[in-house]
Specification:
heterodimer; A: alpha/beta; six-stranded mixed beta sheet; 9 helices; B: two-stranded antiparallel ribbon; 6 strands; elongated
């Protein structure tokens, strides 16, 4: 089941094409990574989903219906840069955005209270945004995004400005929202976060979709038959046939060997276990999202 | 509509709550009242600031003694001789005057004044006047003109103006009051447009650079956002104006009452009454007040409100459009020029051409063209231009406001979502025709 279906969407500007027949589905109740280098067309797509602009071709379905103004109350958006009034107090600001999203002041108050407590921010209420640190501002921005309890949340670089502790806090919160049934679209350049929390991803480059699927699928699609083994003891490499060593390291008695097979991997592992070594771990090395990202965006240059 | 209201109330409340706004709103009337009070105080206590001067005239031939009149706050003392040493030793004397030893009454001459402190312009004039008028009378007498004839030559012309309306009623009118009122109101509109127009622009730039628009325009149409801001800031201006009017009039009447009581109790009251100059001044004030109340105050006030708001809307929308087109305030210069130039131009023209010929052709045209009408018409109104000029001017302004808001809305809509490069005028023109 998809919360969002992008169907053949194109957007043209005077001198360039921002999106070229882009199609993909965003699954319901999952964290979906929207990846791509700067200028790939992510912002244009997000603007279309937010109904700030309309596509020149194609259509977007939200919960199976053609996207319309009614859906805005079900969408939360965290922009990449702080979208807050610097001179306005935290509380007034939250009330303002809540009202614009159709909440009445009374129910907004409870939600705001709840979130401020969650982020240990109740004492900031009267403070102006400009008096807060970057991380604190980002927390308020996050509350603005979710305070109307949207079904679909778009997060554009949500971790900017956070220290590791707060990054973890926000990550946990994102997963929390997912567990409560929200669908999340995460646009970020931090590939380690994508690996950590995304279920599915789409990679866009130069206005086109390059690859999409689950994180594992995407990584596997670029696997190059590389394996890694960690062991203790003395390994007689010359006794092992059909492998090509890529690198060898040793640290505190633990050896790390990366290699590729020229033979069937099944029989390959047999050769290692026949030797007089203690195997600590053995795995196929999948390229990291970072590598996938670099490889795919470069090959399409 | 509901959204415009939410935006408007945010724009209004966030500004009205600011400390700087509260401070300005309360301080300005206090300053005006303090200024007003100071003027009254100085005019009531006339001796403030200038003390009685004693000036020695070295007059061994007794040419001037008993002939010259003492000017106000200055008395001449005549001596046969006086030296610098005497001046240094005598604290009661402010300075001494010498004239050429071979002087005969009726000749022109240069006085030599020596003192420890230099002469003020005022005192300088008093001395020149005193000696000059004596000299002139002496010369006239030398020509064989009698003192009676000389006295009868003094003329005093003043114009008592009356404004006659179509029904033939005539009312006291005063060019000074008309000028002051017109200029005062025009100045207020000028500054209001500038100060609050720039606030609109800053607000738009803030929302754009902070990407707040990206959050808002999905729920609020760009046009609603722009109008909410423009209207909200107008409400701030009207609030400030309202508080100023109320506070200033309250404070001023309080001050008047205080000084009124003082004047009644003070012993100098008889002095004031006996002083013809003071009486004259009171007469002038009374006449000016009558002239003021004879003006069509209701018409002036309503027109002022109209042009105050109308001028602001006209320019405010343009300021909003500029704000949307740029990424930072430093980029605004290029686009500000075409807006500030006509404003400054109408301001300057008002104070030169219009004020001298308020019902002339240039004044008439400028008071109808919307880029200058809010300021120029305000200067003209106390001079009671034909009513159809006023109505035409208001109508033209109203239609132009709608046009300008429509135009600004188009630029704004595209501009707030464009980042990066500074657009050219050509691009701005293109934005007008973009479809959404």
């Amino acid at each position: 089941m998809s919360i969002l279906q992008i169907q053949g969407v194109s957007k043209f500007y005077a001198n360039h094409t921002a999106l070229n027949k882009v199609s993909f589905d965003v699954p319901k109740g999952k964290i979906f990574g929207l990846l791509g280098p700067n200028g790939a067309g992510k912002t244009s797509l997000i603007r279309i989903i937010n109904q700030i602009t309309a596509p020149d071709e194609g259509q977007v379905l939200f919960n199976g219906e053609i996207l319309n103004k009614e859906h805005i109350k079900n969408i939360g958006y965290l922009p990449e840069e702080r979208g807050l009034y610097k001179k306005m107090s935290v509380y007034d600001q939250l009330i303002y955005f809540a009202r614009l999203r159709g909440l009445n002041v009374k129910s907004a108050k409870d939600t705001i209270e709840h979130w401020l407590e969650k982020f240990e921010a109740t004492t900031w209420k009267k403070k102006k945004i400009e008096e807060l640190s970057k991380g604190m501002q980002q927390k308020i921005q996050f509350i603005v995004t979710v305070l109307h309890n949207p079904d679909f949340i778009i997060l554009d670089e949500p971790f900017t400005g956070f220290d590791p502790k707060n990054t973890q806090l926000i990550k946990d919160e994102i997963v929390n929202l997912k567990n409560k049934g929200a669908s999340i679209m995460l646009s970020t350049h931090r590939m380690e976060s994508v690996e950590a929390i995304c279920d599915e991803v789409v990679l866009i480059n130069k206005a086109k979709v390059i690859i999409q699927g689950s994180v594992n699928e995407v990584r596997s699609s670029l696997k190059d038959n590389t394996y890694e083994i960690l062991y203790q003891g003395n390994l007689n490499l010359s006794a092992i046939s059909g492998i090509e060593v890529k690198s060898q390291h040793e640290k505190e008695g633990v050896h790390q060997l990366t290699f590729s097979y020229n033979i069937d991997p099944k029989s390959g592992l047999q050769q290692f276990s026949n030797q007089d070594v203690v195997i600590k771990s053995y795995r196929e090395v999948l390229p990291s999202m970072q590598e996938v990202f670099l490889t795919l965006t470069e090959s399409h240059e | 509509m509901n959204n415009i209201w939410i935006v408007t109330s945010r724009e209004y409340l966030s500004r009205v709550k600011k400390r700087s706004f509260i401070l300005m709103t309360l301080l300005a009337p206090l300053l005006i009242a303090a200024f007003y009070g100071a003027i009254i105080w100085v005019s009531v206590n006339d001796n403030v600031g200038s003390t009685e001067k004693t000036i020695v005239v070295v007059d061994p031939q007794h040419i001037f003694e008993n002939k010259i009149e003492n000017p106000a706050k200055m008395s001449f003392v005549f001596r046969d001789n006086y030296s610098i040493t005497d001046l240094v030793n005598d604290n009661s004397v402010d300075g001494f005057l010498e004239f050429p030893a071979d002087y005969k009454l009726g000749d022109d001459f240069a006085l030599k004044y020596q003192s420890m402190k230099s002469l003020s312009v005022n005192d300088n004039n008093k001395i020149k006047d005193a000696f000059g008028s004596l000299l002139r009378e002496q010369k006239l007498q030398n020509l064989g003109i009698t003192q009676t004839a000389i006295d009868s030559l003094r003329v005093d012309v003043s114009i008592n103006e009356f404004k006659v309306d179509e029904d033939g009623n005539s009312k006291t009118s005063n060019i000074g009051i008309n000028t002051a009122l017109g200029m005062g109101l025009a100045v207020m509109i000028y500054f209001f447009i500038f100060l609050y127009g720039v606030q609109v622009m800053r607000g738009v730039i803030e929302e754009k650079t902070n990407r707040i628009v990206e959050l808002i325009v999905s729920t609020v149409k760009p046009f609603q956002l722009m109008m909410g801001k423009v209207i909200g800031i107008a409400a701030v201006g009207l609030t400030q104006l309202g508080i100023w009017v109320i506070l200033t009039s309250v404070l001023m009447s309080v001050i008047s009452v205080i000084f009124g009581l003082n004047m009644a109790n003070a012993p100098q009251v008889s002095e004031v009454a006996n002083n013809p100059a003071m009486q004259d001044m009171n007469g002038n004030v009374a006449e000016a007040l009558t002239a003021f109340y004879n003006l069509p105050l209701l018409k002036i006030f309503t027109s002022f409100l109209f042009y105050f708001v109308g001028g602001y809307l006209f320019y405010g929308a343009l300021f909003a459009a500029i704000g949307s087109a740029v990424d930072s305030e430093t980029d605004t210069q290029q686009f500000m020029m075409p807006i500030t130039l006509p404003l400054v131009f109408s301001f300057v023209i008002s104070f030169s051409v219009v004020i001298n010929d308020p019902n002339g052709a240039l004044a008439t045209w400028l008071s109808i063209i919307p880029i200058s009408s809010p300021i120029v018409m305000m200067v003209r109104i106390p001079f009671e231009p034909p009513i159809w000029h006023l109505l035409l001017s208001m109508g033209v302004l109203l239609i132009s406001i709608l046009g300008i808001i429509w135009l600004a809305g188009k630029i704004y809509r595209t501009g707030i979502l464009m980042y990066g490069k500074k657009p050219t005028y050509k691009e701005l023109a293109k934005w007008l025709f973009y479809k959404n």
